[in-house]
User: Fold this.
Amino acid sequence: MTTFQVRTFGCQMNKHDSERIAGMLAERGMTVAPEGDIADVIVFNTCCVRENADERLYGQVSSLTGVRRERGTIIAVGGCIGQRDGEQLLRTLPMIDVVFGTHNLARLPELIDAAADSPRPVVEVEDPSDADFTADLPSRREHPWHAWVPVTVGCNNFCTYCIVPYVRGRERSRSMEDVVAEVHALMADGVVEVTLLGQNVNSYGRDLYGAPRFAELLREVAATGVPRIRFTTSHPKDLSTATIAAMAELPAVCRHLHLPLQSGSDRILKAMNRRYTQADYLALVAQLYEAMPDLALSTDLIVGFPGETEEDFEETMLAATAAHYDAAFTFIYSPRAGTPAASMAEQIAKEVVQPRFDRLVSLVQSSALAKNVPLVGTVQRVLFEGASKRDGAVLMGRTAGNKVVHVRSHAALAGTFADVRIDDAQTWFLLGTLISGTGDA
Ligand code: SAH
Ligand code: SF4
Ligand code: F3S
Assistant:
């Protein structure tokens, strides 16, 4: 067992977990399998937030049956499906060698060793309520200059459509000292951008300190001197005035906020257990734009929640128009077994949902373009990520507002900052010209 491959589905938390899986396996002397080769160990880090995420796993694992038999490849499945299904997963996918959950990631190397020595699959899934915050694991970052930094894990909100609280357990925060110490260590290792992660970062600290302390955490992280700070996700009910003020004041905190609306209808928001109204949300948005007129705002929207009428959907269109989004992830509601919404009456037929979904997607596209056009002629600080996948003569980077910028250049600027004059705006990216490339923040 010398080579491995990690295949990741799902959210940033999973991406971060995959970096830790890769870190642990690399520490054991294993190397990433070269592109196109079949690895000795293939780890699936899975997601079950919507049905299509489930289906991808089944398809990919099934297609490995042959190589597993011929080459003895070990197949390990962890993440949210591992946590949800445990041993049950072997009924549909008997070729799996290791099943692990979201709370026992640290045990993966031992579980792989055990599976190599055993003719039977190895299953270990821990009860989320027994789990501690495991932050102290090696990590092999996808980009040397960027790091995910979990500040909370789990979720207490129980939105009625969502499986996350069941597979990630209750919300637990990491101490402020721990987070700050990690950011210092990451900077010493070349990191210039951190993304603070949690299902609802705005309630950070409630379990540890009795009250949320996210605004203070932002200030502490900014005090480390790290050039760029992002964070996700913010639940609108917990986004405080103190956090908005910290964002507005601290130059390192990117002026980009991901603030999931989910629905614009008060009736549906109530059925979703979101605990805000359209008016609450739009008041918050007004406060945000007032504090930061250049804020880039993004969101998540669900279409076709049980009972959603044409009128409810119109409210979503209205709210989405009023929020002037820069970007939005739009989802068709997907029933998840075990969540309250899955057993609600009035599940909506696909033929009804699809046209609503298409309308919402085009609204989001025009909103995104409308936010990009005024940027033409401005100078933006861009953190470059490397050559574009499609064209090696084009450099790709991101603005503080998380907008993709393309620049014609062969310069090796990956991981460095430069100023770019924006020449043209498209829906999902900007085109610009490099005007400096000092590599400083
Ligand atoms: N904690 C974050 C992320 C949750 S999952 C948050 O609260 O925003 C990311 C997104 O997936 C959610 O915001 C929601 O829009 C979507 N989602 C979750 N469950 C879903 C379901 N059953 N069907 C469709 N979309 C869903
Ligand atoms: Fe899911 Fe809601 Fe928690 Fe987000 S806040 S993870 S949508 S339950
Ligand atoms: Fe998916 Fe689990 Fe994240 S269900 S969205 S990978 S918390």
